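ok so for the tutorial part 2 we go from a plain amino acid sequence to predicted structure tokens. step 1 is just haveing the sequence, like this:
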Amino acid sequence: MGKTFEVIDDRMTEWLAAQPVFFVSTAPLAADGLVNCSPKGNRREFAVLGERTVAYVDQTGSGIETIAHLRENGRIVVMFCAFEGPPRIVRLHGTGRAVVVDSPEFAALAAHFPGGTGVGVRSIIVVDVCRISDSCGYGVPFMAFSEHRPTMDKWSARKGPEGIRAYWSEANGSSIDDLAGLPFT
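step 2 — the prediction. this is what the tokens look like for a chain of 185 residues:
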């Protein structure tokens, strides 16, 4: 039986941080708009900032759906599930915003991520959580975690800061539903 929680306590914070992957879902307001769900590797790139505030490092990607949807309407859910140990799914529903690398508040937020914010990071997504819930997770399979892929970091390093910004201009200016993406592309 699922439960809801008033806050993200220390025990849940520890559990969230231990999960090697989480999922982020957003949607545009348009009825015919496409819902987006993105997997995120958690290389110490997720942080609980307060009892009802979380954030994660947003790496450069081929799309810009999450940022575009957040700019349009702010709705977001972050989901974690246990692939090892006791079954559990945790969902954090809320309102999010993207703090892009050029923002004055980016450096202060980046300090929360011991995993770092390398050249491929385009923003930090901050979520004000309005609903914290868990459910059984009985349907989630056991899967052994091996390691995080180094591909994104290597790709970003090869491109360098100027190449990454050129890529943002080329690929991250608007979403697949033609919503505004990165504000500085």
